[in-house]
Amino acid sequence: MAACNSMFVYHILGLASLGAVFYFSLLGEVDLRFPGLVPSSGSSSQPQDASLPFVERRGVQLFLEGRPFYINGWNSYWLMDQSVEPSSRHRVTRMFRSAVGMGLTVCRTWAFNDGDYNALQVTPGHFDERVFEALDRVVVEARQHGVRLILSLANNLEAFGGKTQYVKWAWDEGVGLTSSNDSFFFDPAIRDYFKVYLKALLTRTNHLTGVQYKDDPTILAWELMNEPRCITDPSGNTLQRWIEEMAAYVKSIDRRHLLTVGTEGFYGPTSAPDKLSVNPGHWFNNYGLDFIRNSKISDIDFASVHLYPDNWLHSANLEEKLKFVTQWVSSHFEDGDKELHKPVLLAEFGLSHLVKGFDQSHRDAFYKAVYDIAHESAKKGRAGAGAMVWQLAAEGMEEYMDAFAIVPSERPSMQRLLREQSCRLAALRYGEAEARRTLRTVCA
């Protein structure tokens, strides 16, 4: 997320077989939406059933079990970090319970922590098994609750290590070309570091299920990087080459999962003038981004977009921000239909409570505008794959909160909006009557 600058400031199964919303103890219970799952509180030498269907792409839509699949999801970047220590794991469980209670089905979270506190990758190619087991638990917990995961693989910002840590590793070892953060994208040694990490993660065998990550359908998709930017090459060529290389490498190991880039969606040098005019002021000029070009790469299955009008339009009032929301989201969904021929997911969006004059009704209006556009695209069978709020948190997580964070239990109006969107999208997937039956605890 563009507004986050520290480590603490930082997003399915189809519901055909969902008979009710199940809640779980810390040890877990069998979820009927995931047949064959046998949760364990310790290691298992016997692989668990991995025969769940994968979410797949067909044209401009996502599909699951032969039906279009629409995402109403959320971001909780901190799941792996909070799953490391036994004293904080209950937060992960509480978050999944809360999300399922609102009908949410997809969570985007970090699958990286490089050289920082509770680091997954301590040094290049060396991993902390204790933290890897924490990520294993997150995957199992998601499966138990009927939630799919989008796992982000790196960070453009310094939080949780980010590309800065990779550059520091190379520089300290005397193999780095420069100390510029953007050397992450062009330095051969750093690209090799990242590939070692990718292979280790994708081929990781979950110690609780015996299933390799690349074979686990609980994971909906991989995201190459959270908000990649390469400001030293405004032509976009350096970032484009990196995306092409890393996307091809991921697909050489894992062709079953979907893959996205993780960009914010800024239009770049190859975009038409009418698209460039959609950009919020200067927010693209030196970032090396080129949304349509980046997303057209054949190994990229769906495009991702972010939305932060508070950060991008500093002097705008609520009416102006809502107008921008419509223009920004509609433009990118249109790209999916007409240019990319792929789904487009609004992977992050939020409205800050720190803006002068903020009122909860402003955030409600903002969310509703986003959800209405996503629902309209889905209703017409077009490229809008859904939207994922940044960010949701459990109670008592003040140290992980930012200006956009929401604790659902503390915001009843927001809970209603999230539930309503879940029910609207379920109705499109199953029909009104079946949606009410399968989500009766949410859509009653």
UniProtKB/TrEMBL annotation:
Highest taxon above the source species: Eukaryota
Protein name (record): Uncharacterized protein
Organism listed in the record: Avena sativa
